[in-house]
Amino acid sequence: MADALRPRDAKDVEGAVQWALAHRKSLEIVGHGTKRSLGRPAQVDATLDLAGLAGVTLYEPEELVLSARAGTPLSEIEALLDAAGQQLAFEPMDFGRLLGAPSRQATIGGVLAANLSGPRRIKAGAARDHFLGVAAVSGRGEVFKAGGRVVKNVTGYDLCKLLAGSWGTLAAMTDVTIKTLPRPETEATVIVVGLDAARAMQAMAAAMGSSCDVSGAAHLAADVAARVGDDVAVGRSVTVLRIEGVAPSVAHRTDALMNVLRPFGALDALGEAQSRALWEAIRDVVPFAAGGPAGKRIVWRLSVAPTKGAAAAQLIAQRADAAFLYDWAGGLVWAALAPTDDVGAAAVHGAVASYGGHATLIRAPAALRASVAAFEAHTGGLAALTKRVKDAFDPRGVLGPGRMWAGV
């Protein structure tokens, strides 16, 4: 097992990376390790554990800005925001139940490094869009800062967006600044019952094209919906659309949305408590949780154009035994495949090749994660650019070598 380095502050992180450079060692960056089993298996000499870099260093609710050390638990930040009537609008998912790890253990640095975004992404944007500033140590052992405390900061390169989604392979973040937003007063969910996936995509497109300001749009087949709870539907598929805001507006827009969706089939609605529980289950992909009926299945995450989600899933289903959960109005497809061999991987990559987008292997045995492309493979100019970026930040391959792609 790799040795663990546990820095207490940013200076210790700088020293740890410089030590790794001097001794030709490689480092895996972790917070609480909730996503360590995602992607390619780590092949490193030591673990750089940033959990000790914790604590909110600045919070100005009136300015909608919060700064914290990278190892600060997300649950701590969310509790602080909730007390002030605010939230992280990008609604980051909790991988705990899906990956069989403890829930509510993610850190803010891990959330940003993975660019995690929940159902509200279709309205509020991704984590990277709320990432204002960062202090970090590159794979060269050099400290750098980027961004600031305001959305329109234009000083230097926007390295925050580059680090978001880099999975700790470019730099070790020590401090981050993020944008916060007011929490909606209430919410409701409109349900269309009994649609197939293709027709559900049309219903969600109609909802998203309306003036109802939908903040969540998802489709669950009957067997998937049954794993969410009895409050949604029994034995039938559901297409669910969320409305958020002040109570009078939510009531008005819910009625308007039901009028838009009436031609698609039977309708129902959920109040605030039921709606929150439903969207938390969708956000965390509870129907495919490690401890549930689909817990042994291999899970892929596909990001495609919303109009292509159903077609991509159908192509996968023709080649592999699969169940699907559609989020982001069809643009995010969670696919749970039978745990047999790499046939499912070929089917997923074939669907992406046919319909565009990209796929990420979320849950699988280590042997499969090492043998297939866990993250979408880059080719041509994009592969060359990826390599140049990695070389610019980490020329010696100190930080997470091979974490995303073999040889990078």
Structural features, described:
The chain has 408 residues and is an alpha+beta fold. It folds into three domains: 134 residues, Uridine Diphospho-n-acetylenolpyruvylglucosamine Reductase, domain 3; 99 residues, 2-Layer Sandwich (Alpha-Beta Plaits); 85 residues, 2-Layer Sandwich (Alpha-Beta Plaits). 32% of the residues lie in helices and 24% in strands. It contains 14 helices and 18 strands. β4 and β5 form a beta hairpin. α11 runs antiparallel to α12. The longest helix is centred in the middle third of the chain and has 15 residues. The mean pLDDT is 94.
- The CATH architecture of the largest domain can be named as 2-Layer Sandwich
Major beta sheet, strand line-up: 14-11-13-12-16-17-15-18
Question: Termini, distance in Å?
Answer: 22 Å
Q: Please tell me how large the radius of gyration is.
A: 21 Å
Topology, pairings included?
Blueprint lengths: L2 E3 L4 H13 L4 E4 L15 E4 L6 E5 L4 E5 L4 H10 L2 E2 L8 H4 L8 H6 L7 H4 L6 E8 L4 E5 L11 H5 L7 E9 L1 E2 L3 E8 L3 H12 L5 E7 L1 H4 L12 E8 L1 H15 L4 E5 L1 H12 L14 E6 L5 H11 L2 E6 L4 E6 L5 H13 L2 E6 L2 H6 L8 H14 L15
Helix pairs in contact: 11-12
Provide the descriptors you would attach to this structure in a database record.
Alpha-Beta Plaits; 5-stranded antiparallel β-sheet; alpha+beta; 3 domains; 18 strands; single chain; 408 residues; 8-stranded antiparallel β-sheet; 24% strand; Uridine Diphospho-n-acetylenolpyruvylglucosamine Reductase, domain 3
